[in-house]
Amino acid sequence: MAAAVVDDAGMDAVQKRLMFEDECILVDEQDNVIGHESKYNCHLMEKIEADNLLHRAFSVFLFNSKYELLLQQRSVTKVTFPLVWTNTCCSHPLYRESELIQEDYLGVRNAAQRKLLDELGIPAEDAPVDQFTPLGRMLYKAPSDGKWGEHELDYLLFIVRDVKVQPNPDEVADVKYVNREELKELIRKADAGEDGVKISPWFRLVVDNFLMGWWDHVEKGTLAEAVDMETIHKLKE
């Protein structure tokens, strides 16, 4: 591992610490916990391909009372997908007791609450764990560059709350709320290569496969009708 530290001497100090200290939860394709591994190894394409490392993740979609979706642009110092626009918050439950709880997906909800504070400055009382609605799970693999990538079993969590956002610059470059038409325009720009706009692969998979239908349920207050936590959708980036 020491050699890897030397090789990554240019890595941002905060991101380096998280890469080596955070232990992700390893799962099989049925989402059974099979172990744990450093965030570093879980995002190293060489390890992903050689050992088929798959880790548990979550993606939060936070809407305000006007049913606009909060997006973030990932920080320039992020190891994977820097300066890419994505959903509200995307991260990993860690291999710790509070984030391994399976009942009612409480471990993932706890992790989501933790990272909303870490990344966006949203305090726990503004994002109560019982207000997250887990809508589904998807499995995907996506390279970021030649060295780094993602291979995740991703829990998709929706929450409707008005919150105050104070982005952490180590994690987030920019934020904005969008309505459906504004999101479609952002996607169009990414597809056309305009203004340097890039969209994260996991967010794009959700947009293409689920988001607009689920947005209908957000506006109608019928999210419970959209829940499908039995299926693990295997999607390709």
From TrEMBL:
Signal peptide: none annotated. The lineage of its organism: Eukaryota, Viridiplantae, Streptophyta, Embryophyta, Tracheophyta. PANTHER family: ISOPENTENYL-DIPHOSPHATE DELTA-ISOMERASE (PTHR10885:SF18). Coiled coil: none annotated. InterPro entries: IsopentenylPP_isomerase_typ1 (IPR011876), NUDIX_hydrolase-like_dom_sf (IPR015797), NUDIX_hydrolase_dom (IPR000086). One of its GO terms (molecular function) is isopentenyl-diphosphate delta-isomerase activity. CDD domains: NUDIX_IPP_Isomerase. Its EC number is 5.3.3.2. Transmembrane segments: none annotated. Residues 53-205 form the Nudix hydrolase domain. Keywords: Chlorophyll biosynthesis, Isomerase, Isoprene biosynthesis. This is isopentenyl-diphosphate Delta-isomerase. GO terms for cellular component: cytosol. It is an enzyme of class 5 (isomerase). The keyword Isomerase applies. One of its GO terms (biological process) is dimethylallyl diphosphate biosynthetic process.
